[in-house]
């Protein structure tokens, strides 16, 4: 039977590097990890989990908490976290629980209390949430993706700044009648991000002397709900805005689909901007601020692994974004 | 400190039921489980994982293998599996790896070889795949969602029968020029399901004497790819079919969006049917055969838990489906 020394020799690395690559006990480059896992595979070598755990006191597992799976943003984060943790030798235990739900309750009282993980990545936790205290009480390295939180390093967007930029984009094109679509009920995560985006829109409108034109259309952050909301708020041509700032791309896409169905030309009669860089953004020629949730998952993983190694990451890391102007925005027809 | 006896007393159940509810060692109704977990939570009782594992020889973890997360079908299955396993006291370890990828390779050589789980649920495994042998070699209870497989109980659809029904639906409306859209490259999972659906379409066309009209349009199973494919195959009015059988709803939706963009009226000039019951199906008034992947996730979990308890489920379980006729299909205009 082959041992770790054989694996190291075949991969051309030291025994300790081979061990790190196979057990996740420290950072190893993807390339080295591949060489080592290839060598291990060709020799049929599998490290004993219980032996590794006994030696390191680690489970080599990370708990990933998301409010839902089947939304583009959460799905992409899960893929990013999973891919990067797997490449570092960790398993991912997935917990899906909407804030305020019964599942969320037992998540904290039972599953997280078991502490069968070395660290936690939690997505879209709301500040002020009682979850926050309970998460801290677990006393394991924890990173959140979303809003800034007290006592937990977070990775997220400058929501206010981003929404200011896309609102100003419409104002610069000559729009004065601009609605914000997607002010959600507080149960629809991530509500705080949407609140901040709404503030960015309001700030930009106020700064441009358009305070009296500020208006919000409620919708959850799904294409279907935004489609339904748009069918109603776009119906009256007299009161129809010429521009829409959508809380996210799914809302923007719902508005575009509804507008097309109603014979309202985008962008000639209605300009629409979103936030996300959704898979469908290009198909709908959507002007948007791209964020990269899969890359955020990877970055959060890196932050967490550094914490597990004893480092203290900065309290707040801003994720990269980029404004992409496409054909869903243009000057309003009447200007 | 409270013990299991206190929890059982507060929940009004026997000690063994309380134990089963908290450790996942056997079936307990959702209602009883809630009473027990509520009681445990209010008493601050958490069963010791290592003690439970030592006593039962179980990890109370299930490995869930999917080719990707960010597709409606896979996302819904993940949510169903996760929800039902959590309610039975199990953790879910998520493995995301496309067949044929490097991640898939290390999944088998390293992660699954560790056997840190009591059972496996694998989604969209292809028959004849080398994965199949390796999965069997792990020698743990395993259930697959998708096509029938040798040696592993599976849960899935009668793809041939379903596609025959939707093709016949179009033929009965008077269509003779019907294309199948979504014949995928074999790397795009689940390729076998699509093959079968293509056969169902061909059978129905053949049976109605329409053999010479059989034609397939390649597209992966995404809205964006189908949109791009449709923009091309719908362009020439002379060769345009009057009906489209889509390999899934995402393909159907991509075709509908493209048709609308090109000024081709659905259903007047083009009827479109899909398979899925996607979240967006109603918004696009799509005639489709609904399947329920979240319920499939729940059902697969039940099959797996019965295997863990020593039962042998049937080799093949057919998932429920239902034809829903909406406004995307109508008689062709020329008839």
UniProtKB/TrEMBL annotation, chains A, B:
Residues 2-56 form the HTH lacI-type domain. PROSITE patterns: HTH_LACI_1 (PS00356), HTH_LACI_2 (PS50932). It comes from the Bacteria. GO terms for molecular function: DNA binding. It holds the Pfam family LacI. This is LacI family DNA-binding transcriptional regulator. Gene3D superfamilies: 3.40.50.2300, lambda repressor-like DNA-binding domains. InterPro entries: HTH_LacI, LacI/GalR-like_sensor, Lambda_DNA-bd_dom_sf, Peripla_BP_I. CDD domains: HTH_LacI, PBP1_LacI_sugar_binding-like. Keywords: DNA-binding, Transcription, Transcription regulation.
């Amino acid at each position: 039977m082959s041992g770790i020394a054989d694996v190291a020799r075949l991969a051309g690395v030291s025994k300790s590097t081979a061990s790190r690559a196979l057990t996740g006990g420290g950072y190893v480059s993807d390339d080295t990890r591949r060489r080592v896992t290839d060598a291990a595979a060709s020799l049929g070598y599998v490290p004993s989990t219980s032996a590794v755990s006994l030696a390191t006191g680690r489970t080599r597992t990370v708990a990933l908490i998301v409010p839902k799976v089947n939304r583009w943003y959460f799905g992409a984060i899960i893929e990013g976290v999973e891919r990067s943790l797997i490449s570092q030798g960790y398993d991912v235990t997935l917990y899906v629980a909407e804030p305020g739900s019964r599942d969320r309750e037992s998540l904290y009282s039972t599953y997280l209390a078991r502490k069968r993980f070395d660290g936690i990545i939690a997505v879209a936790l709301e500040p002020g949430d009682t979850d926050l205290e309970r998460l801290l009480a677990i006393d394991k390295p924890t990173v959140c993706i979303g809003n800034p939180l007290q006592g937990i390093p977070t990775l997220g967007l400058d929501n206010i700044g981003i929404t200011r930029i896309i609102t100003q984009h419409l104002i610069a094109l000559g729009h004065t009648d601009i609605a914000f679509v997607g002010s959600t009920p507080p149960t629809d995560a991530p509500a705080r991000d949407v609140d901040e985006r709404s503030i960015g829109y309001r700030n930009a409108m106020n700064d441009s002397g358009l305070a009296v034109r500020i208006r919000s259309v409620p919708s959850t952050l799904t294409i279907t709900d935004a489609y339904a909301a748009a069918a109603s708020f776009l119906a009256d041509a007299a009161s129809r805005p010429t521009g829409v700032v959508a809380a996210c791309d799914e809302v923007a896409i719902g508005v575009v689909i509804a507008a097309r169905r109603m014979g309202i030309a985008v962008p000639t009669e209605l300009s629409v901007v979103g936030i996300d860089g959704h898979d469908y953004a290009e198909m709908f020629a959507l002007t948007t601020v791209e964020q990269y949730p899969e890359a955020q998952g990877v970055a959060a993983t890196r932050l967490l692994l550094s914490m597990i190694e004893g480092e203290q990451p900065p309290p707040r890391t801003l994720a990269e974004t980029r404004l992409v102007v496409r054909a869903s925005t243009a000057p309003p027809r009447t200007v």
